[in-house]
Amino acid sequence: MASTSDLSPAERQRFIMNWLAEKPNISVSDIVRRFSVSEVTARHDLVSLESEGKLRRVRGGAVSLSRSNAISYPEERINVQVEAKEAIAATAATLVDDGDVLVIDIGTTGFYFAKTLMDKREITIITGDLAIANYASFNLPNASVVLLGGSVRKGHLYLAGALTLDCMSKLHADKAFVSADGFHPDHGFTVEHDFSAMIKHLYLTNSNQGYMMVDQGKFNKTSFYQSAQIDDLDGIIVDGDDEGIMTAAIESSRSHPKLYIAK
């Protein structure tokens, strides 16, 4: 292996992330010894990586987000469709204004979306996703977090049940950003669980504007429960529409929500 003292900042930061893939934390002194750099340089690397949403700085070092933040759906994987989710999240972030009250849906797409909100000021995030709430509380200094009540779904990291619905029924947001497991022109947006359908519907009902975030890999797929129809939305954010499926569905709808194709 080449001498780590000769690495560029980008190469050194890749080494740090590889370290955190194997260990739950790293200290500034670890970086100084491993890479033969000053403490100032080591701290700068950690600040840079935190600004990119790749780790969380703590006193004397940093911890891995992938280990400190479990994803709310164990059947989902944070490394599936990463480019699509990041592109969708970045586009969704352009629709957020300083001071907004946001509802962020549970799941990996919502998690990526939360990571794009670093520069937003005086926002409030309402969510039932423990991973999103945890990330926002430690990494979004200009955001307040409202965690919905309810029972933690066994084997998952999100809140569900009658108490969750009751909590959300008493709240109102400027914008809701939701996701789905599938979209079919004949069946709308669908999800696997009945509670997911109910809470997503409530997110949209209790928000001034509603946005769907969905990658085109889910087009022409139908899950068990309808969570939204096109006419329930103000905008739909996708990573592409190569076959024109979403475009045609919007054109045939009554409300014609805006289609945002992420770049």
Care to describe what's here?
By secondary structure, the protein is an alpha/beta fold. It folds into 2 domains: about 5-70, Arc Repressor Mutant, subunit A (Orthogonal Bundle); about 80-260, 3-Layer(aba) Sandwich (Rossmann fold), CATH 3.40.50.1360. It is about 35% helix and about 25% strand. It contains 10 helices and 15 strands. It has helices spanning about 10-20, 30-35, 40-50, 65-70, 80-95, 110-115, 130-140, 160-170, 195-205, 245-250, and strands at about 25, 55-60, 60-65, 100-105, 125, 145, 150, 160, 175-180, 180-185, 190, 205-215, 225-230, 235-240, 260. The protein has a 7-stranded parallel sheet with strand order 6-5-4-9-12-14-15, with helices on both faces. The chain has a 3-stranded antiparallel sheet with strand order 1-3-2. A 3-stranded antiparallel sheet has the order 10-11-13. α2 (about 30-35) packs across α3 and α8 (about 160-170) runs parallel beside α9 (about 195-205). The longest helix is centred in the first third of the chain and has 14 residues, at about 10-20. InterPro entries: Carb_Metab_HTH_regulators (IPR050313), DeoR-like_C (IPR014036), DeoR_HTH (IPR001034), NagB/RpiA_transferase-like (IPR037171), WH-like_DNA-bd_sf (IPR036388), WH_DNA-bd_sf (IPR036390). Pfam families: DeoRC, HTH_DeoR. This is HTH-type transcriptional repressor GlcR.
